[in-house]
Amino acid sequence: MRILITGGSGFVGQRLCQRLAADHQLVVVSRDPEAARRRLPEGTQVIANVLEALDAAPEALVNLAGESIATKRWSDEQKRRLIDSRVDVTQDLVMLCAKLAANGQAPRVLVSASAMGYYGAQPKQGEPGQRPVTEESSAHDEFAHRLCERWESVARGAAEHGTRVALLRIGLVLDQGGGSLQKMLPPFKLGLGGRFGDGRQFMPWVHREDLVRAIEFLLERDDLKGPFNGSAPHPVTNAAFSRSLARQLGRPSLFPVPAAVLKLAFGEMSRLLLTGADMRPARLEAAGFTFTYPTLDKALAAILD
Ligand SMILES: NC(=O)c1ccc[n+]([C@@H]2O[C@H](COP(=O)([O-])OP(=O)(O)OC[C@H]3O[C@@H](n4cnc5c(N)ncnc54)[C@H](OP(=O)(O)O)[C@@H]3O)[C@@H](O)[C@H]2O)c1
């Protein structure tokens, strides 16, 4: 299959490309094709703009591009960048679908990233109303929700051109060499790690390997469309995550970071650390997807081995 991937140079995209390269023809969209080419498997075509893929007429699209959500404080300008960097490229993908459909070549499928932030802050462990969050659950209205909602609704537009659309609400992606774990490891290795705030907020997570398998699953299964929670079946609270990480490293987890300190340091972005959802991959599991790393201990043991 010819597969077009936006954000293919990123933490998830690179692993996805390694997995797909043997069996598929890959076209990656990057703002810096030269740099991207160095990170991607040999034979990957790299282009600078989605619409350059018209001639290649991809049969499948994977949409992973977007400004990193956790690197800068969420000023109004940064919020705009977070939205535009996702919405603009998604709009381009929908336009590509329209143009290809006009030639009778509509891509079969678009798998488009979204995030656990779709659900916004949900009740913490032990709070009234706390229950597993599935694709049916209602969302709490806040910036992360509005960002994901907008991103998803633009992606859904591809369905009007005959393309099947699957939206993957991704949890915290764990693996070596990038993502959040890379930032958490140094203090934990020094024995200075600990929970954030009271630690009762949920942290849905997924091993990067399972995430790329889920993307491949959604590419292949013609009967699957709509939203899918992309996180392991056993989410943990932030306190349990901290304990598990410290245990795997053979270090104590004694130093909680007070919520007030995080709010002061990160402003509204601290919500990424202090709120969460008990998100479960109900629809992936119902469709028969099985996780190689269903529990955090198993995932961390494999990653830190
Ligand atoms: N990693 C996680 O824990 C996690 C959790 C939930 C959701 N997600 C979502 O899953 C997707 C993939 O995640 P990831 O961790 O692989 O992300 P990543 O490593 O930050 O990579 C995303 C790619 O997007 C492109 N990009 C970055 N800033 C951009 C901008 N301002 N405008 C246009 N493109 C830009 C970059 O490609 P070029 O430089 O080659 O253009 C980059 O390689 C993202 O959309 C992310 O929001 C990730």
Give an overview of the whole structure.
The strands form three sheets. The chain has a seven-stranded parallel beta sheet, with helices on both faces. A two-stranded parallel sheet has the order 7-9. It has helices at residues 11-20, 33-39, 76-102, 143-156, 179-189, 208-220, 238-249, 259-266, 271-274, 282-286, 296-304, and strands at 2-6, 25-29, 45-47, 60-63, 109-115, 164-170, 172-174, 202-203, 205-207, 226-230, 236-237. The chain is built from eleven helices and eleven strands. With 305 residues, it is an alpha/beta fold. The longest helix is centred in the N-terminal third of the chain and has 27 residues, at 76-102. Helix 2 (33-39) links the parallel strand 2 and strand 3 (45-47). It starts with a strand and ends with a helix. Bound molecules: NADP nicotinamide-adenine-dinucleotide phosphate (NAP). NADP nicotinamide-adenine-dinucleotide phosphate (NAP) binds next to helix 1, helix 3, strand 5, strand 7 and helix 5.
Total number of strands: 11
Order of helices and strands: EHEHEEHEHEEHEEHEEHHHHH
Total helix count? 11
What's the gyration radius in Å?
19 Å
Which small molecules are bound? NADP nicotinamide-adenine-dinucleotide phosphate
User: Widest sheet: strand order?
Assistant: 3-2-1-4-5-6-10
Q: Terminal Cα separation, in Å?
A: 34 Å
Mean pLDDT over all positions: 97
Given helix and strand content, the structural type is alpha/beta
Number of domains: 1
CATH architecture: 3-Layer(aba) Sandwich
Uncertain spans = none
CATH fold title: Rossmann fold
Percentage of residues assigned to helices: 25-40%
The fraction of residues in strands falls at 15-25%
Give the CATH class: Alpha Beta
